[in-house]
Amino acid sequence: MMSSNPLHQLNSNELKAYRFIRNQLVHYNRAPSVRDVMRFLDLSSPRSADYIIQKLIKTGVLSRRSDRRLSVLKDMLSEQDNPTTVKVPLVGTVAAGAPILAEQNIEARIPVDSRLVRGSSQYFLLKVRGCSMDQKGIQDGDFVLVKQQPSANSGDIVVALIDDKATVKELVLMEGSAVLKPHSSDKTIQPIVLRDDFQVQGIVTNVIPSGAF
Question: Is 132 in the active site?
C-alpha cells in the first residue's frame, strides 16, 4: 500500500529543503527565498532550487501566497513529532584569554529545536560578521550553530580563535600547518595560514539567516 505521508515521496534534497523552509516559517516566521534555499542546499543555480520548491508545492506540503511568499500547506513534521527546544548561548565579543562560553561572552540564550543539538555535546550560536563565507551560504549577519569541540577534520567549516577573535572559515589541514580558507565573492579576502596548533572552538552544523532573532 502506498504511504499517505507526502514526505515519503521526496528525495533527500527535497526533504532537506522542506525541513529548512518549514523551520524558517514555524520557528522564525520568515519565508525563505529561492536563493536562500539554493545556498542552504549548496546548489549551483536558483533554477535548481526553484525546481525543488515546485516539487514541494506539487506534492502538497507547500504553497505560494498571493504575494509569492512560501507558506506551509501541511505541516507534516508537527504531525510526526512534537519538537522541544533547548536554550543555546549566543556568544558576542570574545574576551581576551577567556573560554568562548565564559559567562561574560554570552549575550543571550536562544531557544533552538532540540533535534538540531542532539546528544550531550555543547553548542553555541555566533553571529557572523563580513562576507568571507558568502559563497557557502553564510551571509553577513547570519547566525551559525556551532558544536563545541577542540578539533576538526579537513574540510569542516569551523569557528577558530585567532588573536582572541572568532572567525568562521573552512579548515584545510596540511603537514605541520593549517589553512583557514574563505569562500567569498570578495576576492581580496585571503586564506589564513597557521601552524597546526591553533585553537579550534567548534564546527558549524547549521546556518540561521539574519533577522531570525
Answer: yes
Confidence grade of residue 170 (pLDDT, cut at 50, 70, 90): very high
Nearest to 6 by CA among 53, 51, 57: 57
Active-site choice (55, 132, 136, 147): 132
Length of the chain measured in residues: 213
The widest CA-to-CA distance across the chain, in whole angstroms, is 62
CA distance 132 to 158: 13
Name the β-bridge partners of 71. 63
User: What pLDDT shows up at residue 213?
Assistant: 61
Catalytic residue among 136, 147, 169, 181: 169
Instruction: Give the chain's domains with CATH numbers.
Output: 6-80 (1.10.10.10), 85-208 (2.10.109.10)
Q: Is 136 a catalytic residue?
A: no
